[in-house]
Amino acid sequence: MQYNLFLLAALLGSALAQPAKGSKAYKVPQNPKTLNTHKALPPKPQPEPPVYNPCQSTEVLATKCLGPKDCLYPNPASCGTFIQCVPQDEVGNAKPVVMPCPKGLQWNDGKKWCDYPHLSTCPAKATTKTPANKPVAKPVKRPVKKPVKKKGGKKQGSGGTAQPE
């Protein structure tokens, strides 16, 4: 009896899987987000790298970092950025936030703004080695042909034409 039930289930299952005569078979679309969910998991969040913290509680408490030049510091990691301290509490703790300079500019800590590279105070300036002073080659003096005197009192130049004396 078990054998007959198994056979019946197998036959019915394959018959049910086939579309009825005259009907069209449709494939059910599958959501790609639900397929292989073990591969679709979001990546684990990575901790942010530590940021250099120059924020001084005395300045944060005194100025509350409200002035346009308060709580701004150079970033030793990059000349094209600076660090702005954002107050976090009433005790003077502040969070350092790396801020970019506009393209081509570098931080000038004396003026507390982004400036042209030759005016910046960035300690990480790239030094270019100037070439050693080499002596400049002197121009070569070429001998000048002197006119040859011919009979008849006329000079003949290098071009072969006779010239009066």
Automatic annotation (TrEMBL):
Gene3D superfamilies: Chitin binding domain. InterPro entries: Chitin-bd_dom, Chitin-bd_dom_sf. SMART domains: ChtBD2 (SM00494). Residues 124-138 have a biased composition (Low complexity). Residues 123-165 are annotated as: Disordered. SUPFAM superfamilies: Invertebrate chitin-binding proteins. Keywords: Signal. Residues 139-154 have a biased composition (Basic residues). One of its GO terms (molecular function) is chitin binding. Residues 155-165 have a biased composition (Gly residues). Residues 1-17 form the signal peptide. GO terms for cellular component: extracellular region. Residues 62-124 form the Chitin-binding type-2 domain. It comes from the Eukaryota. This is Carbohydrate-binding module family 14 protein. It comes from Dothistroma septosporum (strain NZE10 / CBS 128990) (Red band needle blight fungus). The lineage of its organism: Eukaryota, Fungi, Dikarya, Ascomycota, Pezizomycotina. The gene is avr4.
